[in-house]
Amino acid sequence: MRGIPCLFVCCGIPATRETDALIAPWVNMEIMTHHLQQVATRTQPVRHAVVIMDGAGWHTDEIAQGIDNLRIIKLPPYLPELDPIEQVWQWLKQNELPNRCFEGYEDIVEQCCRAWNSFISDSKRVASLCSRDWIEVGS
After folding, report:
1. Which CA distances in Å does 85 have to 1, 21, 103, 129?
2. Domains and their CATH numbers in the chain
3. Are 64 and 71 in contact (CB under 8 A)?
4. Which has the closest alpha carbon to 50: 42, 58, 40?
5. How far apart (Å, rounded) are the C-alpha atoms in residues 50 and 16?
């Protein structure tokens, strides 16, 4: 079953300044589950991944079932400023993808990949946009 159109499902890992992204023509629960499994696989042994999510329809509790090293923190509705990924989207839209016309789907994917690679090229930028003071935990 298809969901709504989406090009990025992504996250930044502030502690390690790593990123993980999945480019898909749409997003739904199946795509999100696949992405969370991808994040869990990249999480170092004896570590635990915490993913912050808003109230999107595909951000349900079931998508993390069976993934033992990953938990979801659900944000209250209508508070995008608490969601670190919103700052990433803003940076991408302002710096890499402003007011663009695309030749077609392949061009969209190519330009999104280019934009994502530009974003992750600066690990300090990843750390600053993807972290929040209120979520810092000890190592």
Report:
1. 25, 12, 27, 8
2. 4-98 (3.30.420.10)
3. yes
4. 40
5. 13
Other beta carbons within 10 angstroms of residue 117's beta carbon come to 12
The token pair at 9 is 């499902």
Q: How large is the C-alpha radius of gyration of the chain?
A: 15
The pLDDT confidence band at residue 68, using thresholds 50, 70 and 90, is: very high
Place of tokens 């710096």: 95
Tell the residue number behind the tokens 């919103």, with chain if given. Answer: 86
Say how far apart CA 63 and CA 70 lie, in whole Å.
11
Residue with tokens 């989406």: 6
Residue 2 in contact with residue 28, Cβ under 8 Å?
A: yes
What digits encode the pLDDT tens for the residues 9-59?
Answer: 566 555 666 677 888 888 888 888 988 998 898 888 888 888 888 888 788
